[in-house]
């Protein structure tokens, strides 16, 4: 499979083995595009136009090694930095180990992967980068390290948009709100009081789905949307109303 894709232009999606990343990958594949998945675990699903690589993106050496391998084999013309981890904790309970992990995953890996694929992103003339931030970037209790790094992703997104715009590369971020993924359910079990409070806060009256976020990503990834860059789109069911700046 890798041989048949070796000269193909691809979109690289981190964390595409499951959840939001998988939904984005499947949406791209449905359009006939080729996708490379880079994740901590290999997926339990397959597609003829999907190639998967395994890496621990919290570790610099692992990230650099896989990025170099992929860059040598594929023309990455779009990059979706989706992989994430919540690491719940308040200022009283958070640890520097958790902080190091999420900084590595949400910030260092984003920088390293962007650097690795810049040559092919620039060569395409219409490169696309989508960074998966979070509604928590605006503040969320019990998410001190998570919210800090997700806010950092927004700063990185805006700066990259300024630096890479002349190369035809757009850089945007998505801020998902309550999305019914496995990751969300681990931190918010069904029937728990905090889960009900989240449900009650959603203006549209339902949880979001991975497909809701994938549709937003597809807008930013479209070659036709080259005049939108440096933006954050909150896919949150209205939970940022009264919080996010206009």
Q: Helix-strand pattern, N to C?
A: HEHEEHEHEHEHHHE
Helix content: 40-55%
Lateral strand order in the biggest sheet: 3-2-1-4-5-6-7
Give the CA-CA distance, first to last residue: 46 Å
CATH architecture identity: 3-Layer(aba) Sandwich
Tell me the CATH topology: Rossmann fold
How would you explain this protein's 3D organization?
By secondary structure, the protein is an alpha/beta fold. The chain has one domain (2-178, 210-235): NAD(P)-binding Rossmann-like Domain (Rossmann fold), CATH 3.40.50.720. It is built from eight helices and seven strands. The chain has helices at 2-5, 19-30, 60-73, 96-124, 144-164, 182-187, 193-201, 210-221, and strands at 9-14, 34-39, 50-54, 75-81, 128-132, 170-176, 232-235. A seven-stranded parallel sheet has the order 3-2-1-4-5-6-7, sandwiched between helices. Strand 4, helix 4 and strand 5 form a beta-alpha-beta unit. The longest helix is centred in the middle third of the chain and has 29 residues, at 96-124. Mean pLDDT is 94; it is low at 1-5.
TL;DR of this structure?
By secondary structure, the chain is α/β, with parallel strands linked by helices. It has helices at 2-5, 19-30, 60-73, 96-124, 144-164, 182-187, 193-201, 210-221; strands at residues 9-14, 34-39, 50-54, 75-81, 128-132, 170-176, 232-235. The chain has a 7-stranded parallel β-sheet, sandwiched between helices.
């Amino acid at each position: 499979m890798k041989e048949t894709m070796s000269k193909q232009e691809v979109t690289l999606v981190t964390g595409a083995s499951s959840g939001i990343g998988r939904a984005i990958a499947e949406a791209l594949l449905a359009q006939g595009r080729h996708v490379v998945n880079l994740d901590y675990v290999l997926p339990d699903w397959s597609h003829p136009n999907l190639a998967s690589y395994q890496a621990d993106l919290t570790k610099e050496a692992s990230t650099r090694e896989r990025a170099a391998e992929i860059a040598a084999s594929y023309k990455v013309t779009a990059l979706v930095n989706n992989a994430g981890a919540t690491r719940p904790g308040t200022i009283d309970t958070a640890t520097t180990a958790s902080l190091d992990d999420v900084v590595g995953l949400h910030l260092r890996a984003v920088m390293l992967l962007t650097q690795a694929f810049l040559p092919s992103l620039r060569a395409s003339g219409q490169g696309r980068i989508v960074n998966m931030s979070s509604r928590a970037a605006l503040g969320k209790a019990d998410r001190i390290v998570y919210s800090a790094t997700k806010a950092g992703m927004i700063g990185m997104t805006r700066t990259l948009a300024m630096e890479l715009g002349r190369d035809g590369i757009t850089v945007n971020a998505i801020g998902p709100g309550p999305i019914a993924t496995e990751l969300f359910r681990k931190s918010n079990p069904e029937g728990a009081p905090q889960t009900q409070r989240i449900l009650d806060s959603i203006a549209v009256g339902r949880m979001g789905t991975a497909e809701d976020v994938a549709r937003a990503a597809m807008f930013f990834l479209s070659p036709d949307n080259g005049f939108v860059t440096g933006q954050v789109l909150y896919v949150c069911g209205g939970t940022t109303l009264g919080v996010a700046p206009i």
